[in-house]
Amino acid sequence: MNQSKKCKHPACSCMPSDGKDCCSEWCKDAKNVTEIACQCQHPQCAGGKLKA
Fold it and tell me: What is the pTM of this model?
């Protein structure tokens, strides 16, 4: 994984795979959407913990 940059989705805290801007297809599709919670479903994502 590329540890120098995070996923392009503003609410996501995941690190994408090398050569990718986003950690998942969901984040890729929503990278320009402003949200307070991330829906990528990765257990390590701090943005997903904001969901009620």
Answer: 0.74
What per-residue confidence (pLDDT) applies to 2?
43
Residue 45's domain comprises 1-52
Percent of residues in the chain assigned helix, strand, coil, to nearest 5: 20, 0, 80
- Residue 1 is predicted with a pLDDT of 44
Looking at the predicted structure, is the pLDDT value of residue 52 above 90? Answer: no
Q: How many domains does the chain divide into?
A: 1
Distance CA 1, CA 35 (A): 25
Cβ burial of 39 (10 Å; 0-12, 13-18, 19+) is middle
